[in-house]
Amino acid sequence: MFDLVINAVLQRKVYKAPLTTLCIEKCVIGEKQADALEKLVCDFQWDHYKGYYEQEERNREDSEFDDDGYDHSDMSD
Questions:
Q1: Cα(49)–Cα(75) distance, integer angstroms
Q2: Where are the domains of the chain?
């Protein structure tokens, strides 16, 4: 996905129609890739999404709470 985005950004720059804003959310890209886009796009926003592992951690945290909203993870049966 990164290759597609960077090529579009570079092509717009060549044709003197630079991309001014780019937001990347829920898309796994590395720090170096984000840095490259940040250098080419004035208003670059990235949520630092880490993909499957980040979602798995969020699911684990959510499962520690019952419907009442209290943390019951340390309560013994």
A1: 32
A2: 23-59
Residue 52, number of CB atoms within 10 A of its CB: 8
Q: Is residue 38 helix, strand or coil? A: helix
What global pTM score does this model have?
0.60
Q: CA angle, 47 as apex, 18 and 17 as ends, to 5°?
A: 5
Higher-confidence position of 70 and 40: 40
Q: How far is CA 52 from CA 38, 40, 47, 59, 75, in A?
A: 24, 28, 14, 10, 29
Report the length, in residues, of the chain. Answer: 77
Query: How far is it, in rounded angstroms, from Cα 6 to Cα 69?
Result: 43
Given a cut of 70, whether residue 58 has pLDDT beyond it is no
CA distance 8 to 6: 5
